[in-house]
Protein 1
Amino acid sequence: MSSLDSLDLEEVAELVSYPRGYGYVLHFSDPAFAAFFKAEFRVNINEPRFQDIGPSKGKRLRSFLMQAKDGTALRALDALWKHRVALLRRNRDDDPMAEAEARYEALRAKLGAQPAKTQPGANGVPAADKPVLDPAVTAELKAELIRITGLEPHARGYALESYLQRLFAAHGLKPREPFRNRGEQIDGSFVVDGAVYLLEAKWESAQTGAAVLRAFEGKIGDKAPWTRGLFLSQSGFTEDGLVAFGRGKRTVCMDGLDLYEMLNMGIRFDELLERKVRRAAETGLPFIRVRDLF
């Protein structure tokens, strides 16, 4: 049973009432609400035990938080807060709740958490404040991605490389331009929470298969053990290729629809990658779509 009392639970209800009103949970439909709990907690929120005080989404959330341990309740609160922030950003709304962040931090403290801005980052070093995404810049990046789609195939591939450099820079990921080591070409690198990612970016007519994925994984395997890889295939991946590529790799995958949905939903690139890496660690799968993560 969590440490949240009835007044705390009312605070949560008010936090998640945006944008649809009290009694709702953010923008979630019933299927999306169930999918959220299944993906985040491996829980069926439609079970009778979560409907003991009522069947609405708000009451099922309240019941879940009452029954959960503090750590699980904190994870739920943090995940819902991230969705709320993304909604406000996407809708370009001012926060309708007075002192929302301070009230959220008070709830986190009640559940035993450190303040979000002082939580340790990689290797125990305090995480630096991340730059706030400018909605205008995000809109420009989305429009540019659509424009690149109309280019000739050869020009499209080069345009994608420079586009990704601008995207990573806008998200504060310290990008490095494409570079060549002896015997190999790397399409660039960037940093997320202290981890270095090497990039492979392709925009070809055909979907990417196992052989190309294996070749890139080989490049990652030759580097320092903390190196990770991101393979962005704008046209996607063949199902057989992903199966043949296998599980438990240091490469995570992303396709063009992932990229567009990230921009359309106002999601930070580092937040998206964090979820992909976590799900890869949990399942061994290198490719989980944005629509399945959010």
Protein 2
Amino acid sequence: MHRTRIVLALAASLITGCLCLYAQSAGVPQEPFKLGTFQQRGRTFIGIVLRDSQVIDFAQANEALERSNPTRAKLAIPGDMKEVIARYQGDLKDRLYTIVNDVAGTSNAPQYVYRLSDLKVLPPVQPTLILNAGGNYSEHTQGAAQQQQRARGGTLAPLAPADAPLPKSIAAIWERKQGDERVNPYLFLKAPSAVIGNGDSIRVPEGRTQIDYECEFDIVIGKPAKHVSLEHAADYIFGYTIQNDVSDRAPRGDGRFGTDWLIGKNHDTFAPLGPYIVPKEFIKDPMKLRQTLTLNGEVRQDSNTSRMDHNIYEMLQYASNIMSLHPGDVISMGSPPGTNLERSDPRWMRPGDTVVCTIEGIGSMTNPVASE
């Protein structure tokens, strides 16, 4: 019996070793990773995040790999995340997998592996284009409309009467299928100048007191996209990240034009993004992820990406029928319920607060709130 156990143990060890060798030779990572942009003593670099605690300097790791393997192809490692994304499926994916496997298989971390706590986390990417969905969670939309009715002293009425006509298609942009009673997708532009990273302060503009939060799930575009079909939309997604779509809910002051999206969405610091990008192969089902937001430790939003009205593929299709999308651009999928816009007793963000957005599989993004 003792001899049998020894044989079985040796066999298991052999199988494990073979699997590890297979993983390295087949270009399969031994563990999932995330990608981010980091700063160390003023030096900015692309990092590979393991277990939310270690960061591999991609360029330094690649240099060490090529030095120890002279016959390996020489690669120039980008210092910009958009180029990493654009080259990922070409020559960088296998190299990233190899580096991750090398580090995961060592007991002592090489010099090019840093503790996350020793680094400054920057926005993972600086998008050229940011598109944000409006009203993509019915509970949020209905809650906001009902609060407006309450504020006017009106009786709550159904948002869509039974005899209301069905929404129409948008010619050449959004062709609705028969029986689809959803409203059309809605996207608006958010300024790249509003982007900040994990740990950076959301700055409350002087004189603006109704500053709200919205924890949102973002897709990151992986390759040029124009007129993408729904069937092929997944091919254009590189990965996923988090955005806090900070919103100024106060009015314009003149009573004209309704909602002002420039004022409402585009103050500096109003687009915290990050903390990392998760390549799509490491998220089994992006449409089944819990998303939460806490304000000073109190849960204010708690929902799931499954509750979107239009899923990530439909939103990418819709956006690409309007404008060209490029690697590193992001589309934010809208806010779940729980914002102050829906509350009769709103608790707006103010200096001294701390807001945390968390999405399952991606991580948590923490931002303090301060005065401008």
Protein 3
Amino acid sequence: MNNEISLEDSQKIALSVLERFHSICEENGFKYFLAYGTLIGAIRHEGFIPWDDDIDVMMPRKDFDRFVVFCKENEKNLYPLRLHNRENTQYYWYGIPRLSDMRYKYVVDNTYEKPFDIGVFIDIYPLDNYGDSYDEAKRLFDKCFYMNRQYDWYVNPTSQGSTLRSIPKTILHYYMRITRGKLYSQEIDYRIRDYILSNTNENNRFLGMVCFAGKIVLYERSIVKNIELIKHNFSGKQFYIPKEYDYMLKQSFGDYMVFPPEEERHPTHHYKIYIR
């Protein structure tokens, strides 16, 4: 392919997806806020971290579920945007959906991840209740982490790294395909959601992103007050951020105002974007 787009162009397109997402949320009363690296970018740069290659937003679970249903019911009207998840996109293994612009094509740049068909995207994370103690949170995290790991085995038969590491995963892959069947992709996100909802409640001490997390990050409900929102500049546009953004970012990243070493200032994801 010779129609690859630059990081700068990809950021501009992702920003346009975010603008459309913001409009949908405003029109339908869905609550969202900028999260993770995008929230750092908003505070530290008033826009993208210069080397960041995606946009992250978070939605309280109830708003997230309503948004997923909205996208499913309005798929034709949303074009060229489409919400992708495990249920509707073959070989998509991420445990959070992506809203993408399908005029562009996402191509994985590795050998251990099966290709799936999306475009320039924003990541959408659900914010869940997370228990009343660290031990309760860890049980939730461990269970969700293992369920996601199993789904990775189901979708991707090889591992990152040596061929030797891929042998046991290949065996697990075929075992999972046989034992879970063809409908597993239609069920896995609901299984994880139902597990979280059945083991938490609206009065839990902690909130957090648990369904597809790499580590445990807990937000005290008494501090974030169910996430109060304010508007903030991001690349010349106004989007929602948490009022307690400083506390939330420090919980995840520590001193987020300190720049990483020069050698770490590059995109961290393994994909390229092309014009279709």
